[in-house]
Amino acid sequence: MKILTGCLAATEGEVRIAGHDIFEEAQEAKKHIGYLPEVPPLYMDMTVAEQLEFACELRGLRIKKSLLRAYIDNLCARTQVSDTRDRLIRNLSKGYRQRVAVTQLLVGDPEILILDEPTVGLDPRQIREFRALLSGLSREHTIILSSHILSEISSICDRILVFYEGMLIADGHPQQLQEQLSNCRVLEVEIRGDAEGIVSLLRNLPDVLTVKEQGSGFYQVSHRVSTDIRSALYRTLRPTEYELMMMKPEEISLESLYLRITENEQETTK
């Protein structure tokens, strides 16, 4: 993250932001990014408004004093910190300080927001609120987020990059990563009727690999990635006495994906 934002020089390779080299054209490149490190750069003895005014000065924004208040009010409204505008930052909760830090990122309206471990230290309610905040901002900005809390990544991000010992080893949506690691998918179904007959019917569907009876009418059907068996299952069940109650693809956790990806990488480097 430090290399990406120009805080640390790279020993090789290059980073380009909006076509500008982050080291050769640092000033121009950094106009396009907002960076939030793990420890937010906030001054505890400033009010929220003073902190944002200071950020405007650092960004070199030329805003008339008569318009500056309205500009800051607009920023505060976007991140829902308007009610803290005149409060000292030291008196804010951890969650609100993090919101103020994100508000500061928006000064200058950069296209790219880069956040390093942004939910560390937040309680469950604050994390949920912060997710909603990032979700709203993602409609107008590209957000790059790093975190070791993998459940957080899967709930926020629509593209995931996995690094292992400094190397990029996987890139894609969680579903794409799963397909890269496996030749099968799992469909969870609930069907009412004779279990023996249902198992036989499921096994005869195209490209089904295994069928596991879970009890109480639930089954796990493993099938090839290349085939979506849901339509075939529905058509097959329709003329029978069996009653389809539920059908959904199994969701694999990002933690499981990460472990499988890194284990595969360890095997290939032995």
Topology:
Elements: E1 16-17, E2 20-21, H1 26-30, E3 33-36, H2 48-59, H3 65-79, H4 94-105, E4 112-116, H5 124-137, E5 142-146, H6 150-156, E6 160-164, E7 167-172, H7 174-181, E8 184-192, H8 195-203, E9 208-215, E10 218-224, H9 230-237, E11 243-249, H10 254-269
Parallel strand pairs: 3-4, 4-5
Antiparallel strand pairs: 1-2, 6-7, 8-10, 8-11, 9-10
Helix pairs in contact: 3-4, 4-5, 7-10
Structure description:
By secondary structure, this protein is an alpha+beta fold. It folds into two domains: 32-157, Rossmann fold, CATH 3.40.50.300; 180-249, Alpha-Beta Plaits. It is 39% helix and 22% strand. The protein has ten helices and eleven strands. The protein has helices spanning 26-30, 48-59, 65-79, 94-105, 124-137, 150-156, 174-181, 195-203, 230-237, 254-269; strands spanning 16-17, 20-21, 33-36, 112-116, 142-146, 160-164, 167-172, 184-192, 208-215, 218-224, 243-249. The strands form four sheets. The chain has a four-stranded antiparallel sheet with strand order 9-10-8-11, covered by helices on one side. A three-stranded parallel sheet has the order 3-4-5, with helices on one face. Strands 1-2 form a two-stranded antiparallel ribbon. Strand 1 (16-17) and strand 2 form a beta hairpin. Helix 7 (174-181) crosses helix 10 (254-269). It is elongated, with a radius of gyration of 25 Å.
Provide a concise account of the structure shown.
The chain has 270 residues and is of the alpha+beta class. The chain has helices at 26-30, 48-59, 65-79, 94-105, 124-137, 150-156, 174-181, 195-203, 230-237, 254-269; strands at residues 16-17, 20-21, 33-36, 112-116, 142-146, 160-164, 167-172, 184-192, 208-215, 218-224, 243-249. A hairpin with a 2-residue loop joins strand 9 and strand 10.
